[in-house]
Amino acid sequence: MTKQPFLFVGLDYERTSEVVGLAEELAEVDRKDFGFKLNLDFYINSALGGDLEPLSRIGRLHKPIFADFKMWNGRRTMISIAENLFPSYIDYTNIYAHAGETFLRSVVESVEGSRTRILGVTVLTHYKDSDCQRLYGRSLRDSVRMLSEIAFDGSCHGIILPGTTLDMVTDLPIQKLVPAVRPKWYGITGDNDQEQEIYVGDAVRNGADLLVCSSPIRKSKNRKEALIRTLDEMY
Questions:
Q1: What is the pLDDT of residue 1?
Q2: Residues 83/116, Cβ–Cβ less than 8 Å
Q3: Nearest residue to 98 via CA among 131, 69, 79, 72
């Protein structure tokens, strides 16, 4: 059976109105193979502003949501955040793998029975070998492997890793999400200081289940057309 890839579009705007506007625009595309990535600042800005309408409007679009929180806090704080995602119908959120197996497992257990899945963040896509040597004392590829094993042993439902390192985790039976994917029509540009970009088709062929793409779609003059062209490159 052929694996079905799935794309999360990064709604990476500072203003909640722009986030909602892009989500509603793209939701007009009649495809079931994409959803939205929402950053932590979107949730914070909505909460601090006392206006939950942006969250409600996006929820009414009935698209899968990846809440990109990148958690690395105390166990109680992370569990509280994860448990409170239930009413928001969050499909995925994430926690840094270097939080450790015990903390990872506690957060995963806290979402049992819900639709929320926990992804372990390995190495960020703007890191280079030199960054990983300084932080982890090993190469970028070896760091991805180490952190992926921690996430797997901590019972995470999936991992987040640079697409350039997918070959390091082919043996791990776990969902793999790759950020910073680029469609061929856009090219590898280094947008937003990204060091570990990969083409959409290459990511899927190398084992990615979930993809995240933002700039190529967000910055296009015709964003719905850009979404469709990007989705088509997954097959």
A1: 34
A2: no
A3: 72
Classify residue 153 as exposed, middle or buried by CB count within 10 Å of its CB (0-12, 13-18, 19+): middle
Q: 72 exposed, middle or buried (CB, 10 Å; 0-12, 13-18, 19+)?
A: middle
The pLDDT of residue 86: 64
pLDDT at 85 over 80: no
Show the domain range for 136. Answer: 6-232
For 133-175, the DSSP string reads HHHHSS-HHHHHHHHHHHHHHTT-SEEE--GGGGGGSTTS-SE
Q: How many domains does the chain have?
A: 1
Mean of all residue pLDDT scores within the chain: 93
Q: Cα 34 to chain center, whole Å?
A: 12
- The reported pLDDT for the residue numbered 2 is 47
Tokens at residue 114, please? 């819900």
- For the chain, percent helix, then strand, then coil, each to nearest 5? 45, 20, 40
Buried b (16+ CB within 10 A) or exposed e, 155-168: bbebbbbbbbbbeb
Can you give the CATH number for the domain in which 81 is found?
3.20.20.70
Answer whether residue 201 is part of any domain.
Answer: yes
Strand partners, 158: 119, 175
Is 1 inside any structural domain?
A: no
**Model pTM greater than 0.70?**
yes
Residue 218 in any domain: the answer is yes
